[in-house]
Amino acid sequence: MALFWTDGTQAKERLEGTYLMLGDDPVYILSVDSGHRPPMAYIANYRTGERNIAIDVAALGDCRKIPPLGWINLRNLGNPHAVYTERLPYRGRRHGLNPDGLRVADIVINSGGRNDGWTIDSIFSDKGYLDCVDGKYPSLQEILERLPMGMSTAFSRRNAVLHDKHGMMWLYRRSERIGLLSKDRLQLFPKFSFVTDELLESNIQEVVQIVEL
Fold first, then answer.
1. What percent of the chain has pLDDT over 90?
2. Among 188, 186, 190, 187, residue whose Cα is nearest residue 208
3. Nearest to 29 by CA among 2, 4, 3, 66
4. 167 phi and psi, to 5 degrees?
5. Contact in structure between 153 and 82 (CB atoms under 8 Å)
């Protein structure tokens, strides 16, 4: 296996303070003991809730696999609330995901603008984040039937629905609003007609008819 450091000092520089996947579990590298042979990483596991777990840094593999991002249905808030997370271009030597390389869009609060109130830790610590990791989302049908006004819910890492305070239901692709939803129809904005095939692949047509505005 090709590793991306040559000694303990470089391992500490590149891994400490980053988020990676360890198998199926998202983890945070709390610290790296560069003086230990081999270098040891101390991690927090978001699936098990364990902290300060000591592992050989080689167990982290080549450190290319970052925790899944996209739409996340937060559960700790009590009400249906989805936020969109994406990785930003980052110039640095650290591997994995780090706070400087994450954008969070909260469509309930500001219709998709950046919301600096969220942190990676607050999102990853939410009970709903593991649903994103495991690909567990409610169906679009369930959302259309049950989503209260002023709330949002994702049905995939790519798509979410906002039921605004006026009773309108909007479909989002990533952080962009792409169409207007009703119980049996999606009115797609013309500039997003290119996503029709993508939506058909997700079997959305079994729930709503897709038409262009």
1. 59
2. 186
3. 66
4. 90, 0
5. yes
Contact status, residue 3 vs residue 64, Cβ threshold 8 Å: no
Query: Which token pair is 148?
Result: 């209260």
Q: In what side-by-side order are the strands of the sheet with 81-87? A: 70-74, 81-87, 102-105
Tell me the whole-structure pTM to 2 decimals. Answer: 0.89
Cα 163 from Cα 19, distance rounded (Å): 32
Supply 123's token pair. 């999102």
| 96 sits in which H/E element | none
Alpha-carbon gap, residue 92 to 73, rounded angstroms: 30
CB of 80 within 8 A of CB of 73? yes
Q: Count Cα atoms within 13 angstroms, Cβ side, for 158.
A: 8
Q: How far apart are CA 4 and CA 15, in angstroms?
A: 10
How far from chain centre, in Å, is Cα 175?
12
SS (H, E, C) 21-88: EECCEEEEEEEEECCCCCCEEEEEECCCCCCCEEEEHHHHCCCCCCCCCEEEEECCCCCCEEEEEEEC
Contact 154, 68 (CB under 8 A): no
In this predicted model, what pLDDT tens digit does every residue of 26-74 receive, in sequence order?
999 999 998 888 889 999 999 999 999 999 888 877 667 889 999 999 9
For residue 161, what pLDDT is reported? 97
DSSP element (H, E) containing 156: none
Judged by DSSP in three states, 212 sits in: strand
